[in-house]
Amino acid sequence: MIYPTRRAVLLAASGALVALLVAALAADRWYLALAWPLAIAVLVTVDALRTRGNVALDLALPSSAFVGEERIAEASVKLASGARHAELAFDRSPLVHIPDEGRTTLELTEEGGKASLPMSMLRRGTARLDRFWLRWPGPLGLVWRQREVVRDDRVHILPDLRPAQRHGIRLFERFAVDGSIKQLLRGEGSDFDAMVEFRSGMDRRSIDWKSSARATKLLARLYHAEKNNQICFAIDCGRQMSEPVAGMARVDHMIGAALLTGWLALRIGDRVAVSAFDSRPRLSSGFVAGPRAFSELQRLAAAVDYGTDETNFTFALTELNGRLHRRSLVILFTEITDLISARFLLTTLRLMIRTHLVLVVMLRDEELESLATATPQSAEDVTRAITATSILRERQEVIVELRRLGVDVLEAGHHDIAPRIAEAYLEIKQRDRL
C-alpha cells in the first residue's frame, strides 16, 4: 500500500496559495497554476517508484514468559530500496504491553537495521501476535510504502515461577523436614523415628520411662514430621482479585506464591490440590503428590482465569469443605473489601475450622495505606484519606475477628508474599499442627 506523507499533503495544499497568486497577478495566464499540482504529482510518482524493492523482516519473539516479566523482542529489517529508516508496528494484545503502542523506528544501513522492544507481560494466557506492519518513506519523503506481514507468533504467558526459583532451595534447606536434611526442631512431629539416648537440651516429655528402666539409662523418643498431609490452595479469582497491584493482578501474585509453597510441599511429601472460585467454583482439582507432579500443579495454576463476578464465599468454601474428607491445610488467597462479604466468609470459616486448619492470605493494600498517610493538599485529598482510613479499619476488624476464631491470617506486601507463605506452611509442618 502506498499513501502520501505529511510533507506531500502540505506541498499539495500550498498549491492553492500558488493558484491564488497566479490569479491575482496574471489572471489571463491561469493555466500556469496547474504546473504546481502536476509537479507534485510527478514527484510523488517518482518517489513511489523508488520505494520498490525486496523486503526482509525477521522477528525474534519469546516463546514463553512469566506474567509480570519483561522480555525483549528483536526486530531485523533489510530493504533494497535504499531507505534510511523504517517504522515497525506490532499488533496489539490485551495480554502484552509494548511501549508507544507497539511502534518503533529502525535506522537502516546497507546491512539493514535492528531494534529491540521491551514487552511487559500483563496477564496469563496465550498472546497472539499475528500481524505486523512495516512502512518506509521514499528518497524525497513524499510517500510511504506500507507492507502488512502476517505471521503466526504466540507468546505463552505462564504463572510466575520466579519466587520458586529465588526462594525455593533456600527455604527447603533452611526448614526442610525431609530425612536427607537435618530438622531444625528435631524431636517434634507426629511419626515415631527412633529411640535415642537422652541428651541435655531435649524435651523431657520425650523420655520413654519404661525403655529407660530396662536399659538403665535415659532414652527418649525421636519423632519426625508426618508426611502425606493434604494442602489445598483455595484461590479467589473474583473481581477484586483481578485488580492490578504493582502492574500485575492480585491473583497472579497469589498464584506465584502458591507455586512456591506447592513446590516445597511436593518435595516434602505432602499432597497438593488447587481450587479456584468467584461467584461459583471454577476449578476443582484432585490431589497430586511427588516432585514430578509440579508440572501438573503449574498447569492447574495456569488454568485459573480472571473473574469479573463478586466472590461468593459461602457457595465456594462450602463446596470445598464437602470435598475434603480428611483434615487438610486450606490456604485461602483472597481480598477483604467490605464487611458484608466478610460476614459470609466468617460464617463459612466457622464450619471449616472444625475439621481443617485454615490460613487466610491477603496482599497489603499499599495504595490505600499511602492515601491514608499522605499529607493532604486539598479537600479532595482529605476525603480520600478519610475513606482510605475507614476501609483499612474495617479490614483490620475482619482480620482480628478471623484470628479470634482461630484462623491464621497472613498479610504481606506483593514483594515478599511468596516467602512469607512458604515459611508459614513450613512452620505449621514443624509444629505438627496438621
UniProtKB/TrEMBL annotation:
This is Uncharacterized protein (DUF58 family). InterPro entries: DUF58, TAT_signal, vWFA_dom_sf. PANTHER family: BLL2464 PROTEIN, SLR2013 PROTEIN. The lineage of its organism: Bacteria, Pseudomonadati, Pseudomonadota, Alphaproteobacteria, Sphingomonadales. Residues 197-381 form the DUF58 domain. It comes from the Bacteria.
